[in-house]
Amino acid sequence: MKNQLKQVFHSPRFVIGFVIFVFMLGMAVLYPLLVPGDPLEMVASSSYPPGTYISLADTLESKQYGLDLDITATRLNKLISQEDKDAMVLWLTKYRGIAEEDIPVEDSVEMVHFWNEHYDPEVEQKGLTNAKRQYYRRLASRMATILETKDIIIATKNPETGALEESNTISFNTYTNVKDIASRRNFVLGTDNFGRDVLKELTHAVGTSLKMGLLAGVIATLIGLTLGLLSGYLGGLVDDIIMFVTNLFTVIPSFVLIILISFSVSQSARGVMLVGVIIGLTSWTWTTRSVRSQVISLRNRDHVNLSKLSGHSLPRIIVQDILPYIASYVVMALILQISSAILAEAQLSMLGLGPSTTKVATLGLMMNWAMTAQAPLAGRWWAFLPIILSIALITFSLNLMNTGLDQVFNPQLRD
Amino acid sequence: MPVSKIDREKRAKCLAGTGVTKVFGVGNARNVAVDHVDFDFREGEIISIVGESGSGKTTLSKMILGLISVTEGEIEYQGKPRDIKSHAKKKEYWKGIQAIFQDPFSSYNMFNKIDSVLLDCINMRGGRSLPKAEKEAMMTEACSFVNLKYAELTNKYPFELSGGQMQRLMIARIFLLKPKILLADEPTSMIDACSRATILDMLLKLRDEINMTIIFITHDIGLAYYVSDMVYIMEQGKFVEVGTADEVILNPKADYTKRLISDVPKIHEEWDLSTV
């Protein structure tokens, strides 16, 4: 046994799968410990991209530093988007007849000067919609002042007179240290449509999904193992009855069954663990079949006959002489069941039939939320891509561990 | 030392079968493995059942052991019809009849230690409540009977032994159980010639000690002649010739027996492989 365990950890596939799995598990266990709090707390008012968010008001209060840096170019690059640039080039070539090579697209400062020089709203703009015309007018007024670097005056209202009083002036070379700002929050994966921290939500979801997958996998493996052992070892009428039921379940696609059962359970009663139980109760068939065929080949072995001759009872023979020989196989089946249960939950939740809860997140529910908020259409990748990656990594690592184990226990498969 | 004919009639009936048949499958897949065989084994005899692969020897032995059901026919045990309907009755039956299998490597549960194999035997003989020291003394005695050292074997797994050692341990098991009948299904076919003689000698010694009936299942007619009193020749599920070893081997009547005898390779003659 010890030797086999050693071999398992010498199989590169198993080790890679194991490392990925431990990483995902570690993330699910450690992150909530390091960053406590409700994963479904709505902190933002909408879906924001990843980044560090600092309070503007705090910026004004914080200590000021004077840095003498030329920031015009970098500011302009941030302020003028590629879309604006493209629109400017289009207008200039179409209505001013300027060749594209002559426009200084690379240098933003030059570009603004060039635009301010050549743009004229009075020019006849054929084929341009009114909205587009308005857009160019707005663009032009922005460009007219964009190069000016004026000081900004902060004023506060006098509570008695209601008059504005100057309280602070900020010049363009005034800086502040991010560390000095008290109110800041780093959203590594941004926020979702409900304004919840995606990373925090995701780590909790990975944990819940793994728990649910484990429950479903254990239920499916236990049912499959018991039925497979009984039908394989006893044979005869018991075998016929069990195989009849198994075939019935195999013929009806289990996913259809899951959908129907989930649908018939009321919305409020459908918790994460209940969905796990439903998935487990419908996916045991192939474990039964494969355990049965293994047991049939084992039950006529000499060591089983010898055990019978030693007067051992049926349960003892099954537990001591059959089970250890298929244990490695059962572990592999369990791993596959866990991985397919996680996928099944994700599919079910995408259809809106998954666990209905507002207290915990699962990977499937997060996908469902991203889908209903139309995150893929709006290009909010942070709301669905990390979840897809997590699902893929978990199932990939479990499958990799499974093939690694397969290689160790079936030496014929080794290359 | 074959027993004479007169001597044989005096011996008590031990195991007898009439019209024992085993059929596998139904319809087109119907396969008669053992076809209405009769046998009569007496106490203290050594019987050989000889036949080719697929002649039904092993199926017959499993029926005798009660591991598979009998399709048709009766088996009598100690003069009374055999009753192995319930688990308790089976357990009682297996106290009287035990087996050694062909392949020592697959005869052991590789997850259990050697001690548990021997302890099972002591428990079966009703020694469950004996003090630990006494159990160990019994196991030591059994091991020394087969020239093994218990102190070296304890806490080891079966796969750490050699094939010969494993088969000897099987005999130690029989020594502890002391059954009336021992069914040995080609006990030496997986072992080298040297260990083979040792194992046969041990079995014969054990027979003398506890007056046990031994049924050898074998394809080796030379071995059958060497050890047995009675020889049963089996072909395609039927006994084609039955008699004492001298009768059958020295004066074969059935063609099949003659062929089996002529097929035994002889070291001092050139082998004629053209007839094979």
Q: How would you describe this structure to a colleague?
A:
- The complex is a heterodimer of chains A (415) and B (276).
- With 415 residues, chain A is mainly alpha-helical.
- Chain A has three domains: 2-44 and 192-413, MetI-like fold (Orthogonal Bundle); 55-68 and 151-185, no CATH class; 72-146, no CATH class.
- Chain A is built from 17 helices and six strands.
- In chain A, a hairpin with a 6-residue loop joins strand 3 (152-157) and strand 4.
- Chain B has 276 residues and is an alpha/beta fold.
- Chain B has twelve helices and ten strands.
- Chain B has a six-stranded mixed β-sheet, sandwiched between helices. A four-stranded antiparallel β-sheet of chain B has the order 2-1-4-5, with helices on one face.
- Chain B is globular, with a radius of gyration of 19 Å.
- The chains are: A mainly alpha (415), B alpha/beta (276).
- The interface between A and B is medium-sized, with 17 and 23 residues.
